[in-house]
Design a protein that fits this description.
The chain is of the alpha/beta class and 350 residues long. Helix content is 39%, strand content 14%. Bound molecules: NADP nicotinamide-adenine-dinucleotide phosphate and ligand G4F. One of its GO terms (biological process) is 'de novo' GDP-L-fucose biosynthetic process.
Length: 350
């Protein structure tokens, strides 16, 4: 049987690392694009590293950047993947206000560069684009595949472009190109500047006596937070359908940052969150997305995808992991949930 080849942009990110684990277990040959950095930037995939000198290895890393057209063209033509999972992006909404041009170059034009490379290659490559619930912005919840977009940041504007250019290349050139409109998904591998991880990490540091306070922005914003490994399965399923389409992936529940604080501080045994939290206006955004709640009924019906982990369980999983990272003893309810709900889990517990 022919081994399937996947190319992942953003392989060193939260989602890229889980997807690599998932596809390797599905016997794929996995190629990932990594950026040159002055320090190692592969910590999320180090447990998957394979010595390039050994036979039979199935994970290959290539230097590249989404802003470099020639590099993207060359990699697509050299690797000839069956599937491309395009996850690479400047993914921080607040940062996109500081670096709008770079964000658009990477997130919008980066997507175009890959689609052009696929088109020019003439190969029957399937393409998954990581679109985002941020595209809905101001539109009233619940948001589904038919909800109009009203982006509220340079990041969201760039993702709207990436969404439409993906659709266009599907319609104009017959490319199997799909958008996954994923709502926020989190976990122990989440970047430490996103709010959930910033909170779980700070709580562990407070417990360990390293820090006393956490500085945050808007506590009233509400998000539909799910557990990242489950969302990776949806990405895969989207590319295994008979026809290329776009899908919303979400839990259907929404909670405020304040609720996340309440739940997390309580679970960590620290009691009320108020004494530990200060508001720092630096973290406010020039325009905010107030409420996101996803309606993932299409994914449930057509992909058979449904999330098992909901808000409270997610909080516990993240706190347990950050406690463990600092050598603290977690209460373990998060770990227990994972064992019960995913007896055959495919990802490494952090
Ligand atoms: P992440 O952890 O921030 O990872 C982003 C990845 O993109 C990293 O591997 C990063 O490389 C890479 N990257 C950034 N700029 C690049 C460039 N110019 N060229 C090549 N690679 C570049 O993001 P994530 O949470 O895994 O999200 C994956 C994708 O889904 C992103 O496109 C994000 O916008 C989208 N999304 C995420 C969520 C969510 O809740 N997580 C929801 C909806 C959509 P370095 O490691 O070198 O920085
Ligand atoms: O954790 P966040 O930075 O995630 P945000 O902006 O929702 O974006 C994430 O999810 C998107 C999907 O909807 C992805 F497309 C995107 O790539 C990224 O993964 O902020 C969540 C909320 C915001 O309303 C923010 O204003 O938390 C609020 N918040 C309050 N204090 C904070 C902070 N956010 C951050 N990052 N840091 C704070 O101190």
């Amino acid at each position: 049987m022919k081994i399937k080849k996947a190319l992942i942009t953003g392989i060193t990110g939260q989602d890229g690392s889980y997807l690599t684990e998932f596809l390797l277990l599905k016997s794929y040959e996995v190629h990932g694009i990594i950026r040159r950095a002055s320090t190692f930037n592969t910590s999320r995939i180090d447990h998957l590293y394979q010595d390039p000198h050994l036979n039979g290895m199935r994970l290959f890393l290539h230097y590249g950047d989404l802003t470099d057209t020639g590099n993207i063209e060359r990699l697509v033509n050299q690797i000839k993947p069956d599937e491309i999972y395009h996850l690479g992006a400047q993914s921080h909404v607040r940062v996109s206000f500081d670096m709008p041009e770079y964000t658009v170059n990477t997130d919008a034009l980066g997507t175009l560069r890959i689609l052009e490379a696929i088109k020019n290659s003439g190969l029957p490559i399937k393409f998954y684009n990581a679109a985002s619930s941020e595209m809905f912005g101001f539109s009233l919840p619940p948001q589904n595949e038919n909800t109009p977009f009203h982006p509220r940041s340079p990041y969201a504007c760039a993702k709207v472009f990436s969404y439409y250019i993906t659709r266009l290349y599907r319609e104009a050139y017959g490319i199997f190109a799909c958008n996954g409109i994923l709502f926020n998904h989190e976990g122990p591998r989440r970047g430490p500047t996103f709010v959930t991880r910033k909170i779980s990490r700070a709580i562990a540091r407070i417990k360990a006596g390293i820090e006393k306070k956490i500085y945050l922005g808007n506590l009233d914003a509400k998000r539909d937070w799910g557990y990242a490994p489950e969302y990776i399965e949806a990405m895969y399923l989207i590319l295994q359908q008979e026809n290329p389409e776009d899908y919303v992936v979400a839990t259907g529940e929404s909670h405020s940052v304040k609720e996340f604080l309440e739940e997390a501080f309580k679970y960590a045994g620290l009691g009320d969150w108020q004494p530990y939290v200060e508001i720092d206006p630096r973290y406010f955004r020039p325009a905010e997305v107030e409420v996101l709640i996803g309606d993932a009924s299409k994914s449930k019906k057509e992909l058979g995808w449904e999330p098992k982990i909901k808000f409270q369980e997610l909080v516990k999983i993240m706190i347990d992991a950050d406690f463990r990272k600092l050598g603290l003893n977690p209460s373990g309810e998060g770990d227990k949930t994972l064992k019960e709900k995913f007896p055959n889990k495919w990802w490494k517990i952090d």
